[in-house]
Amino acid sequence: MTFHKPIWAMALVCAGMLLTSHVNLAAGAVTASGKVPADAKVKKIRLGQWTDQKIKKDLAALVENGHFRIARKKLGRLEDQIIGYMPRNGLPALRHADFARRLVNQVSSISNHHHRMKMLKFLLANHELAATLVFLNRPGQQNVAQVYHRLAAMHRKLGPMVVAYPNLTAAICAVLYQPLTMHINENTVHSPDPVALFKYYVRYQRAMYFGIRGVPARLLIYVVDSCSSVPSMTWALNQYHGDSMVGQLFFRVPYDYSTFLHGAKKEVDVKGYNLPNILRYGGVCADQAFFASQVGKAIGVPTAYDVGMSSVVGHAWVGFLQQVGNQAGWNFNVGRYREYRGVMGMVQNPMTRRHEPDSFMSLSGQLIGTTQQQRWNAVVLTDAAMRLLSFSGTHGTFSPGPLPAYVFGCAAKPLVNSVPVQLSLLQRAVHQCDGYAESWMLVGYLASKGKLTLAEKTLWTGALMRLCGQRYPDFAMAVMQPMIMSVKNPQQQNQFWNRAFRLFASTRFDLAAQVRMMQARLWRKAGHYNRAGRYLMDVIDQYANAGPFILQALHQAVAILRRQKHNSDITKLYEVTWARIHAPPRMADPFMHESNWYQVGKLLEKRLRGQGESLMADKVRRELQAAGNPVAGN
């Protein structure tokens, strides 16, 4: 992991050192404007050297005069020049330019001038910490000024330790720039003091399952977003350190049926809401998920508190990073009840505080085993593609200024901005670090806007299937879906869906069912109702127990029958569907009412009663009621 310390950072260590208005270059001089005097004899230099000299000059001037607006403009133009003239081996120059632009943009958000300048000098003197934080932050989606205020506060209390643990420091600052709050039903929990949390992880770093120093900051954000006190975390570490199957801790917490069956207040609410009490007194699914996720964070395992998107009363479960050989991947299935398998979930992004599909974060498991430099390179190349894309919209034409004549090792002419050029940058980003989700998602965005050709969609969906199909199928589906839906020709789009179906058919029944639902939607929209109906029946026949899709498939199949005047077949369809679904074990009413079996049974009962078949309707109702009586152990 080597990120060469740029010469501007070394130059700025000498406080108060001001560059003159000229930069001496071997046999001649270049003026501050970059022009070569007519009588000067200038030695040619490579693009990378010229880039570092320009950055050094611009940052030195910024340290001297504090004019951030001017520096932002200069560094933005410089990065555009690097993007426009970058050779194949010019990635270091682009990385240095993108770092400098990001750094100045982010630090400029600090309102107090004195604090802004102090932070700039601190970051320039501590490059690894600066780059880790600068490339981790998501300006526009989080309060970056507060992130740097948090860094300043931690540095005052911890001193050089914040520099010694760049990934941990960056993760805590990027997440706990303001206190984190979670609402677990009737309970409200808060994040611990960031300094105390930092000390906890440093003190017990050897007991952390994945360690601390070597864990990428983009994964550590799912460790440090704890909402348990440090004493509770220490208790959890003593009880569970080294546990690789955090999801199974979900079931260690006994389910408190008295809440639903008798309307009683949960005992854990009375005794005090903390991890030891949750384990002792039990709770509902939200408490089980909170317990498992918080224990995971306490033992150094990235976890996420997941909430069902289509739940009637709401359901929660836990996702956790699971080690698989020398690799790791997110597991969202172990720590939840079977009745909710296939329900798509939402998790809170710890940095932005926004909820997003859990599939978006699943690819981050791929970051294990990558170097810091590879991760930064992926960010930089994706930034470059996004800058080019911005010029395709409302920012005018991309036209980087010419490079000085004495610069060599670069393209003779600037690139012409186009979607293929943007895709080539994203392809390089994926090659550097295929676990950086934003690269793939930008490709999906381009496709959804109709900017990709059929051949390009074929290429990228194929790459997604190869990388993510087996290890990160949820992410693959999330990116592929808008890409495939943008294919206008129904036959061609259906071929893409068939490829996706073959990928998921034997391992992920829920995703296979989702594909069939998309195919039914495609043909229904095209007016081919019989073909749509066949795909819906495939879901009912083959995937009745795969997830919530069965209810959607049933409702849509009923709509097609009604459209085709086949109302007499609807009752039979309900009967066949209910027979296909496995009856769940006897359980408390809230879980029973959530199950597909119960909901389809209620539809059948209502249909029979509406047709005057009271005896059959009563029989269905008795069967539904009998299943709703819980037995011990559930």
Structural shape: flat
- Compute the separation of the termini in Å: 50 Å
Helix segment tally: 30
Structural class given helices, strands, pairing?
alpha+beta
Tell me how many strands there are. Answer: 11
Largest sheet: 5 strands, antiparallel
Please state how the strands of the largest beta sheet are arranged side by side. 8-7-6-9-10
Proportion of residues in extended strands: 5-15%
Structure commentary:
By secondary structure, this protein is α+β, with helices and mostly antiparallel strands. Among the domains are: 1-141 and 370-450, no CATH class; 181-353, C8orf32 fold. The protein has 30 helices and 11 strands. The strands form 4 sheets. The protein has a 5-stranded antiparallel sheet with strand order 8-7-6-9-10. It has a two-stranded antiparallel ribbon with strand order 1-2. Helix 23 packs antiparallel against helix 24 and helix 29 (596-610) packs antiparallel against helix 30 (614-627). The chain is flat, with a radius of gyration of 29 Å. It starts with 6 loop residues before the first helix and ends in a 7-residue tail after the last helix. The model is unreliable at 1-34 (pLDDT under 50).
